[in-house]
Queue: 2 jobs
Job 1
Amino acid sequence: MANGPDKTPFPLSGRSSHLLLLAVVAFSAGIAAAQAISPEDNTIVLVIALFLAAAILFSRKGKAQAMGTLLLFPFFFLVGLIHAGPYLDPPTALHHVRNQITTRQTVAVSGTLIRAPSRITDPDTGPKTVMLIEAEYLIFPADPDTVRKATGLVRLTLKGEPMEKLTPGRRLTARAQLSPISFLATPGAFNLKTFFARQGLWVSGWITTPANITLLPDLLPGRPPPSHAIRFQAERARYRIARFLDRNLDPRTRGLYKAILIGDKSDIPADIRDSFQNSGCTHLLAISGLHLGLLAFLFYVIFSRLLGQSTWLLLRFRAKKIAALITLFPVTGYAFIAGLNIPVTRALLMAAVVVLALLFDCRKSLLPNLALAAFIVLILHPLSLFSASFQLSFGAVLAIALFTACQPRYFPAGREEKTTAPTPARPLWQDWALAGLLISTVVLVGIAPFLAYHFHRISLLGPLATLLVEPLLCIWSLTIGLAAITLHLVSPAAAVALIKLGSLGLTAGAALCGFLSTHFPWAVLWLPAPTIPEIALYYLFIFALLTMRGRRLLLIALLCISATVGIEAGIQLHRKFTTTTTVTQLDVGQGSSTLIEFPGGRTVLLDGGGPTSARFNVGRDIIAPFLWQHRVLGLDGIIVSHPHADHYNGLPFIIDRFRPDTLWTNGKTRAEPGYKKMLEQARRRGIEQRVAGAGDLLLESNNARLFCLANFGQPQNPPGPEPEQHQGRPGANPNQEGMVLKLETGFASFLFPGDIDRERELKLIEQHRDLKADVLLSPHHGSRTSNSQSFINAVSPEYLLISSGNSHQAATTAARLAQRSRQQGIKGLMTFKQGAITCTADERNSLVCSGHLKTQ
């Protein structure tokens, strides 16, 4: 007897399923290898042809099918290698904006707005609008009569609200300050340049006022009617929805609604974003399978009911199949409106495969569907493999698929055997709650290494918080929001009422996340980014737990735990017994932060400040990732040379996460309010606070000693008891009251003068202080008010390090100082050019200073 529809094998099941999984793994490995391998394409094509021929040959010989299958791995590996190559190479065309905009300059750029403008509300600087345009022409001020053809994408940020007529597909000319996209090149920190380059973005710009934007006619003379009228329909709908939400919701809610409805998370307030992340609910703000699944379910029910009213249709076709097929159209349209990001694309592709399986009466399998979706995404966007979005989205679904396959006992509905013993009835909501908690826990365990790698934190509250917040956002607010955006063109009043009703769920969800993150801060684990071997050991351990029992499980578990502990112990032992002194000047922008690593593994952080905003914290986003990458888990001391924000505003985060033994200051308590809060925070944490006087030894290890050469905040620097903290002279410049520190090793010496001016430089020379040093950290970030020639001569350094931002004025001043130094035979290194600068002093290499180049 023929099998029923539910028994028909799915085309991607069995051997074909295994081949697909093998192909995806090999293809992904090739993309990953493309970053380090760049062979000639012709050679690779020849090798691929040989492997393909061999695979076909072996696959026809029965017993040799296994060999043919194995040969598919190198075949797809090489295909992935070739496919990713062009995406990794920067554009070489002369007319591309990357090759025309090489320095910061004011340029008039003409092009087409290709995405809906994103609004960002910054409490410090006011609203901003981010736009992405496809460049057509450039006009440079030096040659205003010449219009240069241009190609490529330009990211423009406008100060102020988005213009009403600035819709996607509209052509415009903007007078903007353009520059190559740069980033703070400190190892471990997020590489913004690579992130944008993978999206084809190399140039960004700043528009000071909407008056610098001129809207152009959509049609050019001699150009055929624009096809982009259709091309940009989804983006225009997205923009209309965003404007509707902006007009009718308060700033605290509209950002959340834009995130779950159209995939735009740029307008979420920073504190709400942090509370969602600390409570483990960030994934609820990303449009993913849950959103599309809910939408598909609603449309499927509607279409099924409508089609079920036709007797003629029911007699000839299966209404459920037709309803499922029709459902794909609105779901696909919504996916385009949501921006077709990776989670949306993955969910859409998987939904399409499920519908096809339903149409052909095939069994549905999650793992092959997931593999097929990943394959298509990587073919379209191969570099998405390296993005957090791809890894977290596919990793979460893969974790669920593997868990259900390995542990079917947790899903009794799939068993064929049923027990005859009566079981007590359990409320449905309990089953849903337990299932939701289990799935959330499985997802957290499955993607934990990626969370630690990309964000350095894992919330243990994630499963519970998801269970509580998900109904508010994804059932209440999302369902009502979808209804509201459907009605807003037909009945604006009803849409406004619905969207305000739906916002109550968002408000409650945000309040709940804020409560959990505030009252349970211990539940957030801040971790170093795991290495590749550590990630492999973690997943091997999880695999053993799911598939093994008895001695085999014990053996694998002991092996994984021992190897992981051994890796970390080896790193710490190497630090403990090193004889090298390392000084790293971090690239923090316009600010300063220096990590001093002593022989024996002791560490001190000198200053820790830079630019900051509601969305960026230099301690959390730059300094801490660098320390974690170097496996620095705690600090012996933190030194604040003087109380200026660009030297301390990142330290509160560092104090919380790295708990230094001692906090050294110059003794001043006035200046910015944030400085007093930092001192109070250190007191609450039980950190010893000391004031450094001239000649005081701050730290010593083996042959390296760090001491205070001068403290201009303590003029007399009396010996004996610790000086009291005092307010200082009213109106005095904190730069003039800073500390000057010196590090001496057996092989090199370093001078750290803080932000002292020329007057203090002269005073140091007059006091006949021992200023001579091999490495000098340029006073006041290379400023003209410091760095006198007499001071440079007195120090006579081999290297001059300049910690400076890339603003035009700061960069120009620093470059002039570096050029002047080179004329004296001094090697000048600037953080805004070389990135973080590392100097190592040991008995073999003596002294070597090099930068973490920004070109990488």
Note: The mean pLDDT is 82.
Job 2
Amino acid sequence: MPLTSGTHLGPYEVLAPLGAGGMGEVYRARDTRLDRNVAIKILPAEFAANEQLRIRFEREARTISQLNHPHICTLHDVGKFEGNDYLVMELLEGESLADRLERGALPLSEVLKIGVQIADALDRAHRAGIVHRDLKPGNVMLTKTGAKLLDFGLAKSSALGFSAEAATVMRPLTQEGSILGTFQYMSPEQLEGLEADSRSDIFALGAVLYEMTTGQRAFDGSTKTSLIAAIVSKDPKPLAQLQPLTPPALEHVISKCLAKEADDRWQSAHDVAEEMRWIAEAGSQAGVATTISVRKRTRERIAWGAATVLAAIAVAMTFLYGSATQRAARPFVTDLTPPAGIRYNAVGDEAGALVVSPDGTMAVFSGTDGAQNQLYLRSLITGETKPINGSDGAMFPFWAPDSRKIAFFSITALKRVDVSGGSPSVVVPSAAASAGSARGGVWTPDDWIIWTPNTQAPLEKVRASGGPVSNITKLVAAKHTSHRWPSVMPDGKHLLYLAANHQNPTGGDNGIYMTSVDGEEPKLVMQSTSSGVYSDGYLLFVRDQTLMAQKMTTSGVISGDPIPIAENVLDDVGIWRGAFSVSSDHLLTFHTGRATVTSELRWVDRTGKELAKIGSPASYWDLEISPNGQKVAVEIGDPLRELWIVDLARNTRTRLPLESAWVGTSVFSPDSSMIYTSILRQGHGALIVHGVSGGTEKKLLDGNLADGGVSGISPDGKSLLFVRADGLALIPIANPTQEVKLGGHTNDSFGEFSPDGKFLTYMSDQNGRMEAFITSVADPNQKWQVSNNGGFYPRWRHDGKELFYLDPSNKLYAVSVETNGSDLTLGTPQPLFSIVPRPQCRPYAVSADGQKFLVNTLVEQSSPTVTVVSNWMSRLRH
């Protein structure tokens, strides 16, 4: 019977419905005696009317209440309400395993961890004489403290005289769907009407483990009859056929759980738990995935105790150590999912596609939780994923040749870190590296790091241990604006890199070139607008979102036609890079699809309380409020960005007809009638001005603007503040070619003028960490540091008496400002509230009086997929 909020069941006050669960409706409630939240399940009246069932239910409820186990949902109390039995249980926050499986298979490490927890819970129940009889993903809850097993003793056999399928429905389904959803996990003896015992639960555990590992059910059928026939007489598909990264040892555990005869299964859940613990602890020895080549012959000597396991290993070794022809006949493909709550951060300036280690046993990738990105290390043997300490804000990681170290770029420096642990160390400090806009690197066998420090740089080299930096290549004016994405050839001496010209993206000079660590004269290998990597006689590159392989000699001579290897590969056109990597023995990883971000514009007050929403959710970028407070300029779209003007009074928006492929940050003129922005159109950059309410655009400046954009405008409307790769600059609107550099630091960015025009606020890593600063326009050498624990995107209140900025945790701070001629006094930063911003943009704007903030708030962010191919060369033959 449905309950309403505020209903009291004795000392329990119903707060809200949680949905269907097991045999009834589940509600969030408050235990008024112990002042704690609980879950209450109301049982249907038809169950209470069955005297035998009611007595059995009460007896088993008392028994289960004595079970004290961290992975069994605790039963607190039982009672009656208007003739209906109810249970009072531990309130669990999280998602069911069934809901998690809707997103696909789990990583191996999660399968083992959750599987051990479920098996331990079953073992505890079995030792108390309780058989679950209804183990399935819907009865497992995933919480922050681990898996929790639900509904012990509620799903009985048909001998008790009621429908098992009616007792186990977890969500609205058709009648046929309900039957299939229940019978999927029943053992053969249950389906034959025999008494279920603990080994029936072990069969169900095997079916759940199978589904967790592969993302598919072990048994399926279009009808109840065909499903029962499959469970009783057929074996499920081998796990390695569906999930190539499955260790043979785990396949053995699951297949034994699913034995048709109860005597042939594991005889206790304890044994199953111990086997999975052994697989997790033994790592590469017990958990060798059948799709990834193991490089050392000593790994062939793994000892197994049973003949069935030896047979599994023999099959695996045939694939792992067979000839290249044998391995080519076994092309396996699988997808890698990121950890729960983390998304691949594979696109854009502050990113890093997943990169496989040279030996093919590990991968490193940049991931984001929506607020901060950092690096993660993933074992391709065990599936374990862990964050790399000290890598917050890291981008574009790459491996050392020994697969034991990783180099990456932070906003301030080129760094390195050991995969075994420890903190990152600096290779090139911020004084010599504008790493915040770096474009890739490679670590050579001779311990050189070759890298591109910013978007307008040639290749540079430095010893991996640190030291002086020197150029390898030289940029030729009017030919290339950047040399980027270096990769090393097998001799360790020669390099491939992409040479790009942002001003002429379709020109013949754009392409993959070859040079040497010693700086040999570069030669064109092939025309291209995406990075390339050499692998065993082939050049791999992306063209029109298709990964291609074309024959190439080690001297850089191309021959034959390119062969498609994979489609829909992410090609990050904004930075001229294909999101793929390859190990020394042909393990290929690549991203498909794209990362999509949805945000919405919200007005909040100084406490963070939401006041109103502007428009509907979309892919919003940088915000700018007009000086008169009536309009908002915002870029919308991904990857193409268009400039829109939002009318705050009418809550409508209008697109400016700029007909460009990309729009940068924008600022309004002081009278709010015009808007200044930088655009990229057919590869050509321009600084333009356009009427807010219509008219046509006027071009102020041609040139390569891809490395920066408009950041602010002087109060008199005479100068624009522009962000370049090498710092801030002033552009006179009347004579835009007379640009004035403000000096400062290469990573100075996101500045704006004070209301009186005498000062600039901006963010900079000039002291080794990104902080908010103020400088004098008249004397740029005069500086004041505003933040003291990290500061981003500083903005003025319109009277100049207060400044705002975000700290690294996205908390907004306010700082009072008092000016006295050319001097000023800053107050102590005061925290206001935290936001969840859309990443990689200036995510907030301030009302004139500083009492409201328009925040570009992250709503949803999807992740591109990572695909792993065990031997990419097999695709040359398929």
Note: The longest strand covers residues 12-21.
